[in-house]
Amino acid sequence: MKKIICLIAVFSSVLVFSQSKNDKVKTLISLSASFKLSKQVEKDVLLSFKKRYTNIPDPVWSSLEPKINIDNLINQVIGIYENKFTEKEIDGLLTFYQSELGQKFIKNSPDIMTEVQNATADWAKNITDLVNKDLEEKGYLQSPPPPSPNPPAPMIPKKK
C-alpha cells in the first residue's frame, strides 16, 4: 500500500512540475476547494434568478445562459493566486493538498469555518455583554443616558 501511495505521489509530482504556472493554479484551486471550478456554477446562478423571477419565460433565460461565463471569474482568481504566490510556492501548496494531511484539511475545512464563525459570534456576544454590564455598573448606561461632558457642537446648516 505504501508503495502505491509513493508511486501516486511521484506521478503527481511529475505531472505538477510539467504544467504551466497557470495550469498549476487551476489544479491548486480545484484541489484546495477554495473555489469551485465548475460550469455547474453558471447553471446554479441562472437557477437562482429563475427561482426569484418566476414570471420570466424560459426563452429569456435561454438567451441569458450563454452570457453567464464562469471562465471570466476563474481567470481573475487565477491571476490573484499568480500574483500572491511564486511558482515554487504553488508547487509546495499542490504537494500539500495532494498529501493525506492536505486531503484531511480540505475535508474538514467547511466544518472548521462553521465552528470558527460560531466561536467568533459567541465571543463577540460575550464581549458585548461584558462591556455593557461593566458600563451599567459604573452608571454610564442609563435610560435616558447621562449628559455628555463635552456636548457635540450645534449643527450649522449649509449655505445654498
What's the gyration radius in Å?
A: 27 Å
Quaternary state of this entry equals: single chain
The end-to-end span amounts to 82 Å
> Helix coverage percent of residues?
over 70%
Count the E strands: 0
* Beta-strand content: under 5%
Mean pLDDT: 83
From the structure above, extract its key features.
single chain, mainly alpha, 7 helices
Tell me about this structure.
This protein is 71% helix and 0% strand. It contains 7 helices and no strands. The longest helix is centred in the C-terminal third of the chain and has 38 residues, at 100-137. It is extended and about 70 Å long.
Brief description of this entry?
The longest helix is centred in the last third of the chain and has 38 residues, at 100-137. This protein is mainly α and 160 residues long.
Walk me through the topology.
Elements: H1 2-17, H2 21-32, H3 40-52, H4 58-64, H5 70-84, H6 87-98, H7 100-137
Helix pairs in contact: 1-6, 2-5, 2-6, 6-7
